[in-house]
Write a structure and sequence with these properties.
The protein has two domains: about 90 residues, no CATH class; about 120 residues, Alpha-Beta Plaits (2-Layer Sandwich), CATH 3.30.70. The protein has ten helices and six strands. The longest helix is centred in the first third of the chain and has 26 residues. The radius of gyration is 37 Å and the shape is elongated.
C-alpha cells in the first residue's frame, strides 16, 4: 500500500518537475533565443576570422590485372588479384618515391617538402573494389588542384615502374574546386545556435531542479512529508487593507485601532 503511494508520489513529482521546466522554458524563451544567437555569432566570427579555409581535390585510379586485359575476359581470380594489387598500389602511391617525384614536378610552381606534402594527401583504397582514391587538402584551391593533377599524371608510371606487375589508369581526373570543403560556415553557425539554446535550457533545468522554494501545498508535502491542514487565502488589493495592531496586550483590528 505504502509502495503504491510512494510510486504515485514519485510520478506526480516527475510530472510537476517536467511541467515546471517547460513552464520556465516558455517564460524564458527570449533568453534561450538570445543565448543561441550569441553562440552562433561567436562561432561565425571564429570560423570566419581564425579558421583557415581548406580546399579538397580528388583523383582516383582503377587497378586491373595485366593477364585479364590481355585475354579480354575477366574472371573472379583476376578481380581478386586486382583487389590485392589495389592494396599494394595504395601503399606505393603514398611512398617516398612517388611523393618525391610529385615534389620534383611541383618545384617550378612552389617549393615543397616531403613531410609537408605527405600531410596534405590522403591515399585510400575504396573498400572491396579495384579503385584507389587520392584526396588533396590545402588552404589554396590552386595548390590542391596542382598536387592532384601531378599525382594523376605521375602516379601510373611510377607505380608500374616500382611494382612491375598489373596496371593502373586514371579513373577520375582532378577538378578545380569551386568552394571550400571546410570550415562549413553555415553548418557550424547553425550548430552553434542549437548549442547555445541547449546550454540556456540546461541552465533553466538546473535552476528548476535546485530550487527549494515552497510555492504550494504539494511542495510542503514533498519537503516535510506532512499533509497541509489549511491554507491562508491570498489577500488581493492589500494596499486598501490596514494592519492589525497590538493594544494593551491584546490583538485589535484596524477598525478598533481607528476608533
Amino acid at each position: 500500500m505504502s509502495e503504491n503511494k510512494n510510486m504515485k508520489v514519485q510520478e506526480k513529482s516527475s510530472d510537476v518537475a517536467a511541467f515546471s521546466i517547460i513552464n520556465m522554458a516558455i517564460r524564458n524563451l527570449h533568453y534561450i533565443l538570445i543565448s543561441g544567437l550569441a553562440v552562433a555569432i561567436l562561432v561565425f566570427l571564429i570560423v570566419t576570422i581564425f579558421v583557415s579555409p581548406t580546399y579538397e581535390v580528388r583523383t582516383s585510379f582503377y587497378v586491373y590485372n595485366t593477364s585479364a586485359s590481355e585475354s579480354g575476359s575477366v574472371n573472379s581470380s583476376d578481380m581478386q588479384a586486382a583487389k590485392n594489387l589495389a592494396t599494394t598500389y595504395a601503399k606505393i602511391l603514398g611512398s617516398n618515391a612517388v611523393v618525391d617525384t610529385v615534389i620534383n614536378d611541383l618545384d617550378d610552381i612552389n617549393g615543397h617538402e616531403r613531410t609537408a606534402l605527405r600531410n596534405n594527401i590522403r591515399v585510400n583504397g575504396v573498400s572491396d573494389t579495384q579503385v584507389i582514391e587520392v584526396k588533396v587538402l590545402t588552404d589554396s584551391r590552386d595548390l590542391s588542384y596542382q598536387i592532384a593533377d601531378s599525382f594523376s599524371r605521375i602516379a601510373p608510371k611510377e607505380v608500374i615502374r616500382i611494382a612491375k606487375v598489373g596496371n593502373i589508369e586514371v579513373l577520375d581526373q582532378p577538378e578545380m574546386p569551386n568552394k571550400k570543403s571546410s570550415p562549413r560556415t553555415l553548418y557550424d553557425t547553425m550548430l552553434g545556435f542549437l548549442v547555445g539554446m541547449l546550454l540556456a535550457f540546461g541552465i533553466i533545468c538546473l535552476r528548476v531542479v535546485s530550487d527549494t522554494t515552497v510555492r504550494n501545498s504539494y511542495d510542503v508535502d514533498k519537503s516535510v512529508g506532512l499533509p497541509v491542514l489549511g491554507m491562508i487565502p491570498e489577500i488581493k488589493n492589500s494596499t486598501n487593507n490596514k494592519p492589525w495592531t497590538l493594544k494593551d496586550g491584546g490583538v485589535v483590528s484596524y477598525d478598533e485601532a481607528e476608533a
